[in-house]
Write a structure and sequence with these properties.
Layout lengths: L12 E10 L10 H18 L1 E8 L3 E10 L6 H12 L1 H16 L3 H13 L4 H20 L11 E5 L3 H11 L1 H4 L12 E3 L16
Antiparallel strand pairs: 1-3, 1-4, 2-3, 2-5
Helix pairs in contact: 1-2, 1-5, 2-3
């Protein structure tokens, strides 16, 4: 059966998405603290690289939820900004090496090659598919190395749902934050280490739904 095309915003402006990804065969691959810590770290790094604004996330033992905002602009991401984001994603060494490579291409007059490489990076930005691909690939590499795991970490493609603003966005945020409460792991979401939302003190949320800041 042909895969259904993912629905994504095409024009300029901000769109909100609820993203879900599961471990292969719903295995509890993230049961230990370290994998959940790593997923939280990579969510933030991949989001910064991709230009994605994280609104909330919850990382469970075999899946995770992310609520995010994607703002599209007609202005392309600059070369300097790409280098800055590479440093966040892969470290200063990788960013320096890439900057030197691009300077070399420019100095040698290979502008077509430089433009092609810039285009490949820009295609991964301001896009939920690029964000999730970056996050999941880096985690799979880390997990396989850390635990000597050789199978598939992820269960196919991730699920994405458009979320309208206003109360719909708040309902989705509450749903995500309450995952560990519904699972019976904690009584209040703030007790769970791997649930997070941006600026929790600035938003009215029902009792028990505010994680630690």
């Amino acid at each position: 059966m042909a895969r259904t095309a993912r629905v994504k915003s095409k024009g300029e402006g901000t769109a909100y998405y609820h993203l879900i990804s599961r471990a292969c065969n719903r295995q509890f691959l993230f049961r230990k603290n370290a994998p959940k810590d790593k997923l939280a770290e990579l969510a933030r790094r991949a989001a910064e690289f991709s230009g994605i604004r994280l609104i909330a996330f919850a990382i469970m033992d075999n899946h995770y939820h992310i609520l995010c905002a994607v703002t599209r602009s007609a202005k392309p991401v600059s070369q300097e900004e790409i280098i800055r984001r590479i440093a966040i994603l892969k470290g200063e060494k990788a960013a320096t090496e890439l900057a030197e490579r691009w300077d070399g291409l420019a100095a040698a007059g290979f502008t077509a090659s430089l433009d092609a490489e810039l285009a490949r990076y820009r295609a991964r930005m301001d896009d939920i598919s690029g964000f999730m691909k970056t996050m999941k690939e880096l985690f799979a590499i880390w997990y396989n190395r850390e635990y000597g795991y050789s199978g598939s970490v992820w269960s196919g493609a991730f699920k994405s749902t458009f979320v309208e603003g206003g109360r719909h966005l708040e309902y989705c945020r509450r749903y995500i934050l309450m995952n560990p409460v519904r699972a019976g792991i904690v009584v209040q979401a703030r007790e769970y280490r791997w649930v997070w939302c941006e600026n929790p003190a600035e938003t009215e949320v029902f009792a028990g739904c505010l994680p630690k800041g």
